[in-house]
Design goal:
Layout lengths: L2 H15 L8 H13 L7 H10 L10 H15 L1
Helix pairs in contact: 2-3, 2-4, 3-4
Length: 81
């Protein structure tokens, strides 16, 4: 029942204390963000969303609404297909 949560928590802790944390490419991060949002998740950290967008090569203002940034990330992912 809660094994997925435990696995995610374990992996997060392992990466936190590991000398070789798993690196996730910027496209994979963006895809994971969009999948989470599509499943009903709400991004709680606008700075993280902006960071993902910047890693994709987008220019993002700190004052830009998160919804706008997410739309731009979606469009950037469409271009990568």
């Amino acid at each position: 029942m809660g094994s997925r949560k435990h696995n995610k928590l374990f992996n997060w802790l392992k990466n936190l204390f590991s000398s070789n944390p798993e690196t996730v490419c910027e496209i994979t991060q963006a895809k994971q963000l969009i999948v989470a949002i599509d499943r009903g998740g709400v991004p709680l950290n606008p700075a993280k969303v902006n960071d993902i967008a910047r890693n994709l090569g987008l220019e993002v203002s700190r004052k830009a609404p998160v919804e706008e940034t997410i739309t731009r990330i979606r469009k950037a992912l469409e271009r990568t297909k």
